[in-house]
Amino acid sequence: MLSRTxxxxxxxxxxxxxxxxxxxILEVTMRxxxxxxxxxxxxxxxxxxxxxxxxxxxxxxxYSEANEDTVREFLAFSAANTSSIRNxxxxxxxxxxxxxxxxxxxxxxxxxxxxxxxxxxxxxPTSREEFMRFLRFVQETSLRFDGSAYRTMLRTxxxxxxxxxxxxxxxxxxxxxxxxxxxxxxxEDTHIGGPLDYYQWAAILRSVSALTSYHxxxxxxxxxxxxxxxxxxxxxxxxxxxxxxxxxxxxxxALAEAYGRQGTSQRKARGIRTRLANSRMTEIFxxxxxxxxxxxxxxxxxxxxAISRQYLx
Amino acid sequence: xxxxxDEMKGEDGNLRATYEGLDAWLRDxxxxxxxxxCQEAEFLFRRIGITFNVYGEADATExxxxxxxIPRIIAADEWxxxxxxxxxxxxxxxxxxKDIYGRREILRKGLIPEDLVFQNQVFRPEMNGQKVPHDIYxxxxxxxxxxxxxxxxxxxxxxxxTPSGVSYMLENRExxxxxxxxxxxxxxxxxxxxxxxxxxxxxxxxxxxTAAAEPNVVxxxxxxxxSAYFEHSFLADKLGIELVEGRDLMVKGGVVSMxxxxxxxxxxxxxxxxxxxxxxxxxxxxxxTLGVPGLMSxxxxxxxxxxxxxxxxxxxxxxxxxxxxxxxxxxxxxEPILQNVPTWRCREPDHLAYVLEHLPELVVKExxxxxxxGMLIGxxxxxxxxxxxxxxxxxxPKNYIAQPTLALSTCPTWxxxxxxxxHIDLRPFVLTGSDTVRIVPGGLTRVAxxxxxxxxxxxxxxxTKDTWVLDV
Lengths: 313, 472
Description:
The complex is a heterodimer.
Chain A: H1 3-34, H2 37-40, H3 45-52, H4 56-62, H5 68-77, H6 85-98, H7 105-120, H8 128-152, H9 157-181, H10 195-207, H11 211-218, H12 224-232, H13 241-259, H14 264-277, H15 281-287, H16 289-312
Chain B: H1 20-28, H2 31-48, E1 67-74, H3 76-100, H4 105-108, H5 114-118, E2 140-149, E3 152-159, H6 166-179, H7 181-185, H8 195-205, E4 217-220, H9 229-239, E5 242-244, E6 249-252, E7 255-260, E8 263-266, E9 269-272, H10 276-279, H11 295-300, E10 305-307, H12 313-316, H13 318-321, H14 324-332, E11 339-340, E12 344-345, H15 349-357, E13 362-366, E14 375-377, H16 383-395, E15 400-404, E16 410-415, E17 418-427, E18 429-432, E19 437-439, E20 444-448, E21 462-469
Helix pairs in contact in B: 3-14
């Protein structure tokens, strides 16, 4: 397979996953800000949304204040933000168009359809109802896209590169939520169980579509350390760091098997998975949750670079 | 106003036998149904993403070529003749190119003026004395044909550089078969779906001698911003070959390779949809980023086949076009089966005098123009335009040729909820391999959707039709 083709597949998956993530952040933030202040405290949730999306620098060079209008515009529709939902979908389609022969027609139709639908939204919906519909549309796009990939792609190298992109991006997204919200998840936090944080915790779970899963797994009310456990170490939760790395190891190994050669990517992925598998929450809290997440993000980036060097250049 | 030959009703208004089935079908069908089918067709085209890019239009970067649902039908015997004529013409063009970049006998005989070749921008001195694999220059040709009477077909233009449009031939048929199975059952239409196989067989047959037993064939595209990008990816997919861009290829030790996830892999045949100028920055335009540095050195070393060869523009240039009858006779010793449109070359004084005198009746074209740009259609032009063009011709007569305004045949077309005649042309595709010449029965029929218009180019509002060649 051409390196450029592999690169495009990898990025199509990343962009679609990122668009989905941004849509969920926006949806959750709109939910939180709709609650009376007494339930969520006086923090500016829109600030937090910008930070979770990982585009604080870009945002504040365009706007002086983070509020509903500016954040919605910047994260969803801004042309100036290279990672806005609109740009993600456009870039996904550009990449898809460059490798149409490597995608199945079902995948192409999903991405092309959503690009056409995106155009109908123009510069962005003005009403909240319409905006919610837009966010649903983005999340449905990623569901349909992943679903059609899962159901229609041959399990050859093309598929594994696609999955690599998706899982790297997913791991990065979950880690970023943890990175912005880690202070809410500390066990010694004085607000434990307080009404203020309850809604914040629920919001974190919603943003990785895991609120229901949480109850199924732990069968108790929301506890911050359990939320951290679910998002970091629980391999059964599809967006947890552990699950992402179980999958990344599978994807990397499948490539190694197809090509008959192991390399840095395989070693790196296995290394990170082992680290996650051998960790316990108590120990992570002891050594510092924030430090743990920061280190993970940088390891995840290194795996991304290793994949690029080994296959995509 | 001259009477045009109508594909359905001839010159005299009597229904022609080939169109009887279509006529009956059209009369059975309500306009609503046909309108609905048109919408479905458009939806399908947009959904599969069969679009083309238009240069110089920022907001409408991806457009659909309008598709007309009424097919154009060619009888079996008409097609047989076209097929023989096309084969003959393309054979002659290949021999001509070998000669021009070799012994130049045709120039020594004085049949074509030397300056027309040597001072022509599309002549490639880099190809002088170079052998190309299997002596084939034109692997894929798209020959534009128009019909002016029941038995008169003219070749309007030979496209032997990187002709496009074949994806529409294939997709138009797919969509027609989906929308109108009933109409197909009334006819025996020869299939076109084997074109990708024929093309692949052609490309594999011309691999260089140094290639592996299973030659690696790739399609080289300028990338997603090219107007024909859809077609490039479509064909690569149908052929099952890699769609590469210049940056995917590299040349080392006189061999071309592509960058893959498993390291470099040798490339033997390049079906290139990149123009000569952009192929290799070391040989041609140094500012080109679309090409592959060193490609020409690998080509000269005989380690890679380019399809089509470099320098074929010297065969389809409008200035050379008018010599095509002589070219056929000279190399094959046969009378041409397909005629040229009568053409006046403004470079010759008596021709120029005639052209200037009859300007309002003629179509004048720039020798190097394409896509329907830079031409004058005499009968449609007002006085000011005629005068302006006259000045341009007088200033640089060599740059122009002129032809009579042709009464292109018309074909029934669905416009404004009714059937009306519109002018059409035809581009069949001719494949030349080291083993044989292959022509799929059909081609791309382009239709000028504006009433009375003769310009069928898609960049100027033309549409396409499915082209049916009947089996019996």
